[in-house]
Every structure is written in C-alpha cells, then in structure tokens.
Amino acid sequence: MDSSLASRPVVGILHPGAMGAALGSALKARAGTVIWAAAGRSHATAKRAELADLVAVPDVAELARRAQVIVSICPPHAARAVAEEVAAALDGRPDPPLYIDANAVAPGTVRDIGALLGEPRVVDGAVIGRPAWEAGRTVLWLSGEAAPAVADLFAGSPFTARVLGPGLGAASALKACYALQTKALPTVWAALADAADAYGVRDALSDQLARDGVDLTVQLDALRARAGAKAWRWAGEMDEAAATLAAVGVPDGFSRAAAEVYRRMADGS
C-alpha cells in the first residue's frame, strides 16, 4: 500500500446510498473503521449505513477531520459540490486525506476536483456494475497517482479493483463511454415511441417493428424497469457523458437527448 496511507485507515463514505453502503462494507476488512456523515441524511440512508455496520459521525466537517480516505459516491450533478464541502472542511489540515471520486462524471469534472483538493491526493474511480456484496460481478476502475493504493484497499473485497494508470480522468472516461451503450442507447425506444404517438402512427410502428422481431412494448417496459426511480440520477450521468464526448470533439447530441428522456421519465411525462 502507498506509504502515505495508514495500514488500517479511517475511511469516510459520502454518502451511503445503495452503492455507498456496499463500498463502505467492502472496505471494512482493510479499514480501521468506516464512517459516514449523518447530518441532513434521510432515515433510509441511516438504515443502509446501519445494515452495512458503518459508524455515524455528526457531519462532513467531522468526517473530513477524522478520515485518512474519503470516498465520494453521490448523484453526478452533486460531485463538485461534495468536493467543495470537503475542501472547506479540510482547510488548514496538514495531512489531507486521499479522496476517491467514485461518481459518474466527466473527466473534466474529476480533474477540477483534483485541482481543488490536490491532484496527487485524488483518485478517479468508476464503478461498473451493481452494488457488490459478493465477488465477481462489479468492477471498480481507478486512475490517478494513488490508484494502486486504493486498489490495495479493495483487495479481496466484492469489488474487483483495476488500475488504468496515473492520469485523472481515465476511469471517468471509461465509465462515460460504457454508459452510452447501457443508458443512452436504450432511450431511443422512448424517443421514437413519443414521436410516433405525437404523429398518430404508434400502432403502425409497433406492427412494423414486430415484423422485424422487435416488441416495442417490451423495450419500453425494460427501459422503465431499469431506470425506475433512478431516472433523475441517470439524467445527470448522461449530461456528464455528453461533456465527456464534447471535450474530445465527438458529437454529444444523443447523450444530451438521453438526459432529456430521463428527465421526462423522472417527471412522469
């Protein structure tokens, strides 16, 4: 493990949603303790943290004071604000923690977080898969100077940690590209169905698709089932994916369209 990390560091999780609770639980074997900030969090969050055996501290400031490693796992649109809150809490601390941004954000966003907190102390993380409670199903991709130290923390855990290299942004770029096929492509079914409804040709479209072996209703039901209550969160992820593409001159319109589809789903429209 990197010499800048204690052998059994205190790890702080911001915040223990379903994925955060799984990450926190996965780190218990290698951490001295895993803590989370209780202020302003919901009863559901508190219950998940309790079930994962995480230790509550009063607020982010206390978590930042105590932790040697902080994991940020929050809605994509909030990643920068969470990092800013941590930076404010760390002001004046002589031994800043290692900060793992495990959010579905654009490479530019995580590089901004690196500039805020100190690039050598920031690791870009990308979780691909479901919250992991058993090994073999979920990969945690890592990049940044301290990525090998973070991979060591997850050794033997349900999350398979893989290091991409020392550059911030590589893990986020991989996650964004992967999300285009898992989250952006399926939204085409909702877009074409809405357009067909507006033009009064939905039944004809369904019939024509059926001739090609495609059941439009099944595709739409599958999209709604996958997104469900997460549609608002996936909208933010698609915004970040669009920024990822635009930054390297790749057309980003379908990512932004996917974000709008998920916003409409979240609004019930």
From TrEMBL:
Where does the Putative oxidoreductase/dehydrogenase Rossmann-like domain start and stop, copy by copy?
Answer: 7-90
- The Phosphogluconate dehydrogenase NAD-binding putative C-terminal domain covers 196-264
Q: Which domain of life is it from?
A: Bacteria
Looking up Pfam families in the UniProt record yields: DUF1932 (PF09130), Rossmann-like (PF10727)
Transmembrane residues, as ranges?
none
User: What protein does this entry describe?
Assistant: NAD(P)-dependent oxidoreductase
Q: Which organism is it from?
A: Pseudonocardia adelaidensis
